Amino acid sequence: MNVLTRTVLGRLGGMLLTLILASMVIYSAVLLTGDPIAALAGGAKPTPELVEQIRAEYHLDDPVWSRYWQWLTGAIQGDFGRSFVYKTPVVSLVGPRFGITLQLVLLTVLLILVFGVGSGILAATRGRVVDRTIAAMTSLGMALPTFVVAILLIWVFAKSLGWFPVYGEGEGVWDRLWHLVLPAISLAVLFIAYVSRVTRGSLVAQLHSEHVDTARVRGIPRRRIFGVHVFRNASPQILAIAGTTIAGLFAASAIAEVAFGLGGIGSLLVQAAARADLPVVQIVSLLLVTIFVVLNAVADLISAIIDPSSVGGGRTS
Amino acid sequence: MTAPVLEVERLDIVAPGPEGPRRLVTDTTLSVARGEAVGLVGESGSGKTLTLRAVAGLLPDDFTTQGRIRIDGQDLGGMTATALRALRARRIGMVFQTPRAHLNPLRTIGDFMTEALVHVAGERPDVAATRARHLLDEVGITDPDRRMRQYPAELSGGLLQRVMIAATLAMDPDILLADEITTALDVTTQEEVMAVLADLRAHRDLSLLFVTHDLALAGTVCDRVNVMQRGRILETLRAGSMRRDAREEYTKVLMSASLDEAPPLEPATESPRPLVTIEHLRKSYQVRGATGRRETLVAVDDLSIEMASGGSLGIVGESGSGKSTTARMLLGLERPDRGTITVDGQDWSRPARGSADRRVRAKIAQMVFQDPYQSLDRRQTVRQCLAEAVRVHRPRQSAEVVDGRVRELMRQVRLDEGLAARRPRALSGGQRQRVAIARALAADPELLVLDEAVSALDVTTQVEILTLLDTIRRETGVALLMITHDLTVIRRLCDEVVVMRHGRIEERGTAAQILDAPTAEYTRMLLESIPREGWTPRRRLGRTRSQPTTTRSSAMIPE
Amino acid sequence: MSVAQIANGTVPAAARRVARRDPTFLVAVIAFGVISVVALAGPWLAPYDPNELYVGPLNGAPSLEHPFGTDDLGRDILSRVLVGAAASVFAPAVVVVLSTILGVGLALAAAWFGGWVSGGIARLVDVIFAIPGLVIAVLAVTIFGKGLAAPVIALAIAYIPIIARLTRTAAARELAKPYIAALRVQGVSSPAICFRHLVPAMIPIVAAQMAVGFGYAMLDLAAISFLGLGQQPPSPDWGSMIAAGQAGILAGAPEQSVFPAILVVITVLAVGIIGARVTDWAEEKER
């Protein structure tokens, strides 16, 4: 346990350092623009009053480090600054939209885990025909990006068949869920294929491993061999990939949100980028990076608990 | 009771391949009677392990077999998958070459020991645990309670192999299939495991099918021995009289290779010039122990060796003795913590700095590694490989001169010139090691360091390479430093021997002294644990109880 | 070497063997070849000016004059798809080449210098990995404005961690092999070991990663164009065409979205199959 505790603390430290460095990268975008006032003004020709407002709000007369520190501590305390396009506090833009993104991602995660891991297990265990079929499907799935699936779904299910609503978020729990089905599918397809392949690959590696030979020759029932010796040993690897995938969904959901007209943080990010609304872009980026890093670290830790031998060694290969 | 436990009748094993199916085992027939131990001996590719895996049901799915396999008179061919699994679970126990790979790294020893009892025989977990502790005790594992809680990574290879054996005994099998079970172990550990096996056979009515490449070892533990070559059984011999009865030339070669009577070499006339002087050498590593704690491992401790030019010194030791680390420090592949290395009057205590220094040293000392396939760049042909080695020392030579030298080197190691365009993959193990030796000779070195240079090779190939090295030594006068775990290798090639253990020197002397009249206890133990005619493995570790655990308990009888 | 093979006539023989053994691979290579030719020669192949308005009816169905139909502004979809191929195919190629140069460079620098350089590079790679590619691209667009340049550079940076980590691991594994030690003992110089032995050993692995990375880059760039942050109108590009055609789908004219979508899928599928085979080949070489 001592070793595990030390690993947890070590990973936590590494995670925080990565986050701080990433936040510096995001913040430094202000400097890269050359003229921060023009960038912060969002493309509009700044009036002298606006220049003054920007200077005051962003403490532009302070040194860079001090400005960065104020930005970061403000963000941690929930002060996300003010959008220059919407002229409102960023927090009021992000808050309500985050819920939609979260719901979309959760539904997508469910689809990925059920169909991705499920089809991976089938491919690894149900013989050559099933394996070939699923391999062909995942090959196709890996070439089906969210926006392609989205327009196909809109065309077939929303327009031609009329089974699902096309745009918007809907009202109430069930209607909301109903509105999120097509976006979640469009977001999930590529990742289902990816997770399915990784699952199959690590299961097959375990199925061919020598310790499974031992279990076979000892006559251990097949169900137990699969559960205890194959799936459990393969799970750290599956989990690592699934974790990274899920962590990336919060960013990738932007495409589904835009395609289906959902007002989540992804579509907010895209709109803000299109209008060069840097304060919004920075805060949403920081939020997405934090989610990504934290979820990755969580997946990492769960893997370490399942497979104590991976502790400290890392799994780069 | 007279029916054989295992019968294999006219077994063929065919593997699919890109160039059509290949027949790997042909027309193999053998039987093992109740209580009998039968050896299946051959070199790599002889089909011995495949035959064993066919019995255990572990062939790859796309392999096809013909012929019959019967266990206790029941033909495996006509059985359902479930019946087959039950039969194998209860009648057969199998032990593998690499115990570490064959145990699930994420399960404790206790889980492994009780798994079959609980999930096949339906025992209660606490009953199974009690029995598991008895079985661990029976194979001589002390403190079974603690071992049951440990993970495979925390146990040594020898212990794991005994755990494997104990676990197979849990189901009271009729026959034990042993696949090269001691090949990955040190010679003293091998003796331990073989002694455990001999004890078990004495106390239980246990049959044994023993697959090995070591004819001498098979001869000491088995009643009968089948010699296999290229997928066929050449002859079957009674172990006790196999030296007299052997008719096949191949069998005789296998015997002469493993049981060596050649008299030890006498030291060459005293050379005036010391070539290598090593003084107070020390090397330690920071390692992560099984529990994850950092520990200091002293690989080599206060080691001093002297070697004359043109001499031939053997450094013998088991794994972890520090013998290879010493060789690597000598050649600048590792940096010593302390101590000095002097070679040919130059200070080599630190690894070479820069290319020029490296070239100077390369001219004096060269090395041949254990696994020739790994030590050759798989993308280079034999000619490219040798030409590169030649050009290091003759950078401005014309292509013809280099080519001539390459041909000369190939002749020197008795390598057919037609092989010059081949890559390592298309060469046999012996041919690869000849290329590695030729490459080492390209620099005309004064010292050739051989790091386990024959231990990865088949027995017959070992003999060829050792003979070649002996010839080269006579022809060129190069000094040989032989790093090996195998005392029989020393006998053939070295006039002086150093025995190492845990990084320190146990004993040193001439080959004759060490091999025929050893003074150190450890050297004697090493020598005694080499299988030979009339050898009985002895157990050196204590054991608390000598009774065998219950045989065929009621839980074992299938409903 | 490859020139010699062509001279010996072994390449056609090899191609015949591939065709017999692996027809899927052959189809993928041909598909990718055709798309590459289209990407190069698109402007000459296009029957109409891709940006000319009202060459046909608005949202016209496929016809003899307009095999892929016409879009919501009456432009010829076939011409737009052909001309748009260039941006859709070459931009990801640039991403892959740039990220490979940067990633392999960083990995080799880390392997070569070791110590704090290696540590610093590892940290840098960790930080880049922590920011999803789309976020880097969006940041770049916010700063440098819309268009393909910013996303291409952003993705090239975003892909560094994948290639750098892979190369670093593979190089470390290769350097640990006994044949490298054997070369040292022979007195072969470090640059010679690096360029004659280490680099050739890396090529199959890096090539496989490039093929796989091309597919991802294509998807990511098309997504960025789809979001309206990449290629700007009126210049055609598959991703932005799909987005622009979304309104047409609801109006019953899906052609503007569907044809470029099919091409994206076919290209990524072909590259995916090629990438998988190259990976198999690299693993084969490993053995």
How would you sum up this structure, described in words?
The complex is a heterotrimer of chains A (317), B (559) and C (287). With 317 residues, chain A is mainly α. Chain A has helices spanning 2-27, 29-32, 36-41, 48-57, 64-76, 90-125, 127-141, 146-160, 173-207, 210-217, 222-259, 265-274, 278-306. Chain A folds into 2 domains: 3-77, no CATH class; 91-306, MetI-like (MetI-like fold, Orthogonal Bundle). In chain A, 77% of the residues lie in helices and 0% in strands. Chain A is flat. The two termini of chain A are 25 Å apart. Residues 311-317 of chain A have low confidence and may be disordered. With 559 residues, chain B is of the alpha/beta class. Chain B folds into 2 domains: 4-106 and 172-256, 3-Layer(aba) Sandwich (Rossmann fold), CATH 3.40.50.300; 274-529, P-loop containing nucleotide triphosphate hydrolases (Rossmann fold). Helix content of chain B is 36%, strand content 24%. Chain B contains 20 helices and 20 strands. Chain B has helices spanning 48-56, 81-91, 109-119, 125-138, 144-149, 157-169, 187-203, 215-221, 242-245, 249-258, 323-330, 354-364, 372-375, 382-393, 399-412, 429-441, 459-476, 487-493, 511-516, 521-528, and strands at residues 6-15, 22-32, 37-41, 64-71, 74-75, 92-95, 175-179, 207-212, 224-229, 232-238, 274-288, 294-308, 312-316, 338-343, 346-347, 365-368, 447-451, 479-484, 496-501, 504-510. In chain B, strand 17 (447-451), helix 17 (459-476) and strand 18 form a beta-alpha-beta unit. The longest helix of chain B has 18 residues, at 459-476. Residues 542-559 of chain B have low confidence and may be disordered. Chain C is mostly helical. Chain C has one domain (25-49, 67-286): MetI-like (MetI-like fold), CATH 1.10.3720.10. Chain C is 78% helix and 0% strand. Chain C contains 13 helices and no strands. In chain C, helix 10 runs antiparallel to helix 13. Chain C is elongated. Chains in contact: A-B, A-C, B-C. Chains A and C meet through helix 1, helix 8, helix 11, helix 12 and helix 13 of A and helix 5, helix 6, helix 8, helix 10 and helix 11 of C.
